[in-house]
Amino acid sequence: MSPESEVDLPGEPVPGTLPEALRAELVAFRRDLHMHPELGNQEFRTTAAIKARLEKAGLRPRVLAVGTGLVCDIGVPDDAAEAPAGMLALRADIDALPIPDAKTECAYRSTVPDRAHACGHDVHTTAVLGAGLVLAGLHREGRLPRPVRLIFQPAEEVLPGGAADAIECGALDGVGRIIAVHCDPRVDAGRIGLRAGAITSACDRLEIALDGPGGHTARPHLTTDLVTAVARVVTDVPAIVARRVDTRSGMAVTWGRIESGHAPNVIPQHAELSGTVRCLDLAAWRLAPDVVHAAIDEVANLHRAKSEITYVRGVPPVVNDASVTELLRDAMAVRRGIDSVEDTEQSLGGEDFSWYLERVPGAMARLGVRTPGERTVRDLHQGDFDVDESAITVGVELFTAAALIDGGR
To answer: At 38, is the pLDDT very low, low, confident or very high (cuts 50, 70, 90)?
Structure first.
């Protein structure tokens, strides 16, 4: 670990803390985003707000060619022909979820019907913005050892994820390493969780249509009993898949939607199912489409149902690079002490940060957002999700220290 005395931290009143004025501004910025959530590829207001604040700090953000999201370099001369190689990138995702905000007593609850920042992307965005403002100040003082790139990425919640669009727009040009955080309601604010290797799972989307001639429920033997076929797909396919891959790969098929039929005495002609395929192992994920297709076809054919399968590739697992994980550990230790870092387990959630890690080494940390001592755990993707806003400061400090330590190596 890098001792604090060897790291050129900002000249703040207390090392590792932010000025009160900036802290208050960032909390207000996050609350404004929380009140105005926007879905993937529709984040025009969010993009404009980030851009305006960066420009106010004298920076030159560039909106991505897809129309939302932006990148901003700090410490790169305006007349540079191209981005310098080896930059550290700080990434945030800026989109919200299509669910209603259920926080009835919250003054900053969503003002948009059926839209909410229920995954903490408003916190991620604010933390990267805050780090950018601090680093821009250091650059003006001649204290930023190496250029840094901020990436505000759209559409993380839209498979296969907006990261691919950001990369196509040049977000990784000149980037040598990349870091990010994700809110974790199981970790106390003031702490982070780290894990070298896979920290999330792969996540794909599965859509199935089953068809048959239909008929009367009095004579199921004369037709395709489509409801029974659907039921067998729901129960048998996950079991078949689990027996055709190494159990350590954690491949799991889970259903989220089933629709079929309109009357109790009519066997329907059409049924639809949708769900997800998750996998802990990268190698097994590459095999998943063939394994799942074969299992569905077997069950459907057994019940004489015609199947049409749409398998939407999502994201591979986020696999944290060991050296970048240690960079985050060092940064948090400098800021908050080594006891503020805890080990975390691999999650079955998916994250399109993985697409960046297919190109450059990087790591994602779990950012604690639970108020210390709180017994209730608010889960992600639920309408009542909220955070202890002191986590914003922790995120800013983590990103800032990581940039300074990385630049000094």
So the answer is: very high
Q: Which of 26, 31, 30, 82 is nearest to 57 (CA)?
A: 26
Determine the residue type at 245: V
Name the CATH superfamily for 4-200+317-407: Zn peptidases (3.40.630.10)
| Residue 249, CA distances (Å) to 235, 288, 315 in order | 20, 11, 15
DSSP letter string, 214-249: -EETT-GGGS--HHHHHHHHHHHHHHHHHTTS-GGG
Q: Is 408 helix (H, G, I), strand (E, B) or coil?
A: coil
Angle (CA) 30-164-352 rounded to 5° is 55
Query: According to the model, what pLDDT value does residue 407 have?
Result: 76
Fold of 208-315: Alpha-Beta Plaits (3.30.70)
* Whole-number CA gyration radius for the chain: 24
How do residues 210-233 score in pLDDT, each as one tens digit? 999 999 999 999 999 999 999 999
Domain ranges of the chain: 4-200+317-407, 208-315
3-state SS of the chain: helix, strand, coil percent to 5? 35, 25, 40
State the pLDDT confidence band at 18, using cuts at 50, 70 and 90: confident
Q: What does the pLDDT average to over 23-37?
A: 98
Q: Which residues pair with 97 in a beta bridge?
A: 116
15/95 Cα distance (integer angstroms): 32
Q: Are 214 and 269 in contact (CB under 8 A)?
A: yes
